[in-house]
Design brief:
The complex is a heterodimer of chains A (292) and B (278). With 292 residues, chain A is an all-alpha fold. Helix content of chain A is 77%, strand content 0%. Chain A is built from 13 helices and no strands. In chain B, strand 1 and strand 2 form a beta hairpin. Helices cover 35% and strands 23% of the residues of chain B. The chains are: A mainly alpha (292), B alpha/beta (278).
Chain lengths: 292, 278
């Protein structure tokens, strides 16, 4: 009787916040969060000891963590930049806006380009040599051309950040299409698919895991190429703040800008990962069953 | 699912297939002929790499034939001026490693064929898919993705995905190869149940002789590469069959007969050390 009662209880899988809370609680039973906290703590301790504690040669000129954090949360910052100064957020917003535009263009162009290159051999034959020739050119090498090609200060910066992301997104999407098992194409053909069905039902979903890996790399690439671009041509932005602080020999805001960039970049990568997991529930669930 | 006993006769006539993988011609199939009646379960056995899958691929339209012809119900599928058969839902393949689309639920996988062919709307196709999956004992897992169910369930769903299209021929390429013997026996009975209901022509490649005798009307033993018919074992065990069939004397004798033929070819293949081509 007791067994019958147990069997009659339907277990619903948690979703949304409940799922997040479940995963969070589960993660506390693993060593991962503790090791992460320990690792970060160790890094900060070493940073403190090298720069402020022991003041080792070569490190003594660098701003230490205490100095950085004090300035970062100073209501009246000595160097003009802190979490309480409006300029700080202006730099972040300008960089984020540029990343949003660049990443959107790179994704909007790169994914269809990669899909078509993977799907159509003729199209790949036309376009792949050009992609492979342009891809290895460092983004800094494009700076003079970008300034010549585009007017103003904003467009060249966005162009440079877009270009770097575009190559990553396109190549990963292309690899994503190549990675799809031939048997899926054969099965789809057996079941009466027309080319458009193959494209939308096999090529697009089948390449999503590679596409999202590419997008995570792509957004990171967009950040560091944006910083390079802002260093050369820009008025605001975290890259500009880094180079401007360096030129003015104010190292504290420079490090604050670097750390901010790291955090913002991390958040944007995490956002891409969340969207990817939402769109690839089939993969998330299969991996979860494998304990990953 | 419609009973189609008058459809699905395959005629393989003097088929030869030569591959040219690295500028060196390799003959996979040599002058192979075989007649498969409509509604027959034809089991193909032979050593690894002998060319069985090449034959299946030619029927399915994945590979061309170099010489000879293949007919389906008297209509030319491939051969002569059209060496490559057009792929279509009248010949659906169930693949060795499974080919359910991992990004679609089982219901969506099964509904895919009728939907893309324009025979049914998406909701109609999904309703029918859910019914067929329930018939196959998969009613509770229809909304799950293939990665969330066992290999046996996935393979059953793949057969349902094939059958929803009312194919003339079901082409199975070692579908139960990686399964344990317990799952395999359940899968065999499920396939027999489907066959008894639909009488669809089945072209089934396997290495497992007991599986071949248990499921088939005829067992065609192929030679080592190049592939041609070595021996045909007629299986006159009455249908419907169940697991008790496996213990009958008649069954054991047929297995021995097939084993003798296969063993000779297996030794030849081992000595030749050939690798699989397709």
């Amino acid at each position: 009787m007791a067994l019958e009662n147990t069997n009659s209880i339907k277990m619903e899988a948690p979703t949304g916040v409940a799922l997040w809370y479940y995963n969070f609680k589960k993660s506390l039973t693993t060593p991962t969060p503790y090791l992460t906290v320990f690792g970060v703590g160790l890094w900060i301790l070493a940073y403190y000891l090298f720069c402020e504690g022991w003041k080792l040669p070569r490190f003594e000129k660098l701003p230490g963590p205490v100095e950085i954090i004090t300035e970062w949360f100073n209501r009246d910052p000595d160097w003009g930049i802190s979490a309480f100064s409006p300029e700080y957020y202006e730099h972040i917003i300008v960089s984020c806006r540029r990343i949003l535009i660049s990443f959107t263009i790179a994704t909007g162009v790169g994914i269809p380009l990669g899909l078509f290159m993977g799907w159509s051999k003729t199209f790949r034959d036309y376009s792949f040599p050009i992609l492979e020739t342009l891809r290895p050119i460092p983004i800094l090498a494009w700076v003079p051309l970008a300034i010549l090609m585009f007017s103003g200060l904003e467009t060249p910066v966005i162009f440079l950040a877009t270009l770097a992301s575009l190559f990553v997104t396109t190549l990963n999407t292309l690899l994503g299409v190549d990675s799809i098992d031939e048997s899926y194409f054969r099965a789809a053909n057996c079941l009466g698919s027309k080319p458009r069905h193959i494209f939308f039902h096999i090529v697009v979903p089948g390449s999503l895991p590679f596409i999202f890996t590419g997008l995570e790399i792509s957004i990171g690439v967009a950040w560091f190429s944006l910083v390079a671009a802002e260093m050369v041509s820009g008025e605001f932005g975290l890259g500009y703040l880094i180079v401007d602080s360096y030129m003015n020999i104010t190292y504290v805001p420079m490090v604050i800008a670097m750390l901010t960039l790291g955090f913002v970049g991390w958040i944007t990568s995490a956002m891409v990962r969340v969207v990817g997991n939402r769109m690839m529930q089939w993969r998330v669930r299969a991996l979860a069953l494998e304990g990953r | 699912m419609v009973t189609q006993t008058n459809q699905g006769a395959i005629s393989i006539r003097n088929v030869t297939k030569i591959y040219d993988p690295e500028g060196v011609n390799v003959m996979a199939v040599d002058d192979c002929s075989l007649e498969i009646a409509a509604g027959e379960v034809c089991m193909i056995v032979g050593p690894s790499g002998c060319g069985k899958t090449t034959l299946l691929n030619a029927i399915a339209g994945f590979h061309s034939v170099t010489e000879g012809e293949i007919y389906l119900d008297g209509d030319l599928l491939c051969g002569g001026a059209t060496p490559l058969a057009e792929q279509g839902s009248d010949r659906v393949v169930v693949f060795q490693n499974g080919a359910l689309f991992p990004w679609k639920s089982l219901i969506e996988n099964v509904a895919y064929g009728p939907m893309v062919q324009g025979i049914m709307s998406k909701s109609e196709a999904c309703d029918k898919a859910a019914d067929l999956l329930a018939e196959a004992g998969l009613g509770d897992v229809g909304m799950k993705f293939p990665g969330e169910v066992s290999s046996g369930m996935a393979r059953r769903a793949e057969i349902v995905r094939a059958l929803i299209n009312n194919p003339k021929v079901l082409l199975l390429d070692e579908p139960y190869r990686a399964m344990d013997s317990l799952t395999k026996s359940i899968m065999h009975e499920a396939l027999l149940e489907v066959y008894d209901r639909t009488k669809v022509t089945i072209f089934f490649i396997t290495h497992d002789l007991e599986e071949a005798i248990f499921l088939g009307d005829r067992v065609v033993v192929m030679t080592t590469r190049p592939c041609k018919t070595k021996k045909i074992v007629e299986v006159n065990i009455p249908r419907p069959r169940d697991y008790k069939t496996l213990t009958t004397e008649e069954f054991r004798l047929l297995v021995t007969e097939a084993k003798d033929a296969v063993h000779e070819e297996a030794i030849k293949a081992f000595e030749a050390g050939e690798r699989e081509l397709a």
